[in-house]
């Protein structure tokens, strides 16, 4: 009803209506518009509940004035007059009245925390001094409740957030003439799991809760989150937890910017001057003792390690690793200890107690056991080297039963449950923590420790926050992401070798005239394979690849840069929520894989050619190749379409592609309007040589009546075909209009073509290697052979003697297509079969026995035979339509045009010699020179020589070059 006025001059909620005007002179006009709509729909108003021309009024329980939205005085008075609660019911009544005023109360959950704690669980009622003080403070606050402002259309709004140990709060404000005015206060108490979030996660949760509760404001206004903490970096960080990634995607829907907080410009924002509680343990006491539990194990499924680091403030850091190299149990225990020590060093721990259940590791470190094995000696040296970097370090052996948590983390590395891996990240360690080298002189083994740089952050405070997600970011520096096997790659550019940086090649572009070579050293191969050459386009430069798709995303994540277009900026924010920066390279967060390296341009060509056709390639299809590249840890936005296009243009992939059996053109049925107009002709054989030495059948079938004429011959030449046509077709029935046949040499000879031309018979040939083109003949051949096999016993040489009985049986059997027997459609009456002679039926016993009556009855039937034939033609056409409908339901359109290059299916006479089953399935390419009809084309080879016969599309496949 009021759709065009809502939000402008009217507000409506169920049966409450508000007509508003900025100017007094316009109010009458706005009322008139409202009354006109009410009269149009026959609605009436209650005068007792109406107020007109007032500067303020009540709407939905609030007081709407020219200054803004104010709390209802009746609700405030009800709160003031309420005495201190004396039981649980009155506390519930108190919290209900507070909820009604929630949007006006800053950090309401913190102010009312003592009330909510009374209602938790089945506690006895206890109203103490703390509750009374909170009750009095709340009454004092509501003596001057804030006035909430109304935002203008498309106005930028600002969000302040605050976090305590038990709640998250926020306030949405707008700026009016340099003054910040509140729009809405929100607050939410934290659940038990949420109280264990890190402070950075609580700050992000405050933004998420604000967006959910104030969704209409977030959808229709740009929002600036004013915070002194790097929230945007945390939400887009590579080490974020699963919940942070989920929140980042949820918030990407809105136009949100994160800006550094300035001083608040209004007294109503005083509660939000501090974002975090002052007494919260944000800073790590570096002088306190850390506790490290490690465990490693090895099995047939591989080696894995688990780390559990406990901070002095009792925060738990858990990590699970899978070792990508073979290791014994003792080596896995050492790897777990080294990884845990590197983790503690990177965070800044100075005093640490390490707990391990390996008797060997602890006793070797203490000097009680001697490290005899070279690797054990190297591992021990690496542990001692790391231990010296702590102010205090102690290694304690504990029973395996007391190290169950670390053992569970190690087992997590081999689990297949994706949900567990999202809670605790599972990383891979690709190489040992030591490098063991044998000297030439004394075979002394030296251990070199892999150093790990400490965490660094733009914000000093945030760098000291200990979170599970932050630890994962440090391990990203310890453990490289999944990458392609390293090879010696060389790029030649103006006689200079430019090395490729692996695995991250995102910042490097290949210049023009670049040739990339790589060699792979394999100790099992005596000679090196031929070097791989990546041949790029001539004079290829970085600009030839177009704009780098990674640049806008990186600029937004690093610097917050956005396009000027509003919708493009919004789209970029949504997309960027799924990306992060690791070591200056862009990575995409995967669903099945942790991080995917984003690549572009020449890097895409190198990766696709490697995966498709080089040593690890199998010339697979485009989609399979794209998913394989993704599993290797690479990504770009158009990878599926690019891989499909790449595979399409691979000549080997096209030559060995599977044969095509799916129809590509709609079914074209052939029929005839009357008997003996159109015949199909074919040769069956060679068959088993009979007693009369015959082994071939020449078969002709009438398209209308399905009448078959067939004769057996020792061999069939064009002269035999001409004699058969003259004796069995022309002399017996009539000169046919058309004969459809295949490309057998008897049918395409000049003598036979001259014979048909002399009698005015049109010859039509089906396309080579496409039996369906002469489908009527193939169906007749199938029927004759099936009937012959059933009539023969062990003696197969007498099949020619059974030919005429088979033809008689066929001619006197009703056909499904016409609903009539071929005999009745040709002669007008059904044939008398031996069964009627042996056991006379009604048809024969009741028929007149005199010839004159029989002749007259036959004449009457012949006079009306055209009607029966017309009905059979209709049934035949209906049958063809049903057949075409079924055939066309499987149709897959593959349009080919004149000038296209195609491959032709390989047949027995065109197979590669000696290739056997390893031969190609398609040969060519050929070029289409003419389209004869739908699905039939003339071809020529690449030298311009025409192919003799036209070919059907079922045997052709488009060639991409």
TrEMBL record:
MF GO annotations: nucleic acid binding; RNA-DNA hybrid ribonuclease activity
Compositional bias annotation for Basic and acidic residues: 494-505
Location of the region described as Disordered in the Swiss-Prot/TrEMBL record: 493-512
Residue ranges of every copy of the Integrase catalytic domain listed in the record: 671-830
PROSITE patterns per the UniProt record, alphabetical: INTEGRASE (PS50994), RNASE_H_1 (PS50879), RT_POL (PS50878)
Domain Reverse transcriptase: 1-64
Pfam families: RT_RNaseH_2 (PF17919), rve (PF00665), RVT_1 (PF00078), RVT_3 (PF13456)
GO biological process: DNA integration
InterPro entries for this protein: Integrase_cat-core, RNaseH_domain, RT_dom, RT_RNaseH_2
Chain ranges of the RNase H type-1 domain: 286-415
CDD domains assigned: RNase_HI_like (cd09279), RNase_HI_RT_Ty3 (cd09274)
PANTHER family in the record: RIBONUCLEASE H
The protein's name: Integrase catalytic core
Organism: Arabidopsis suecica
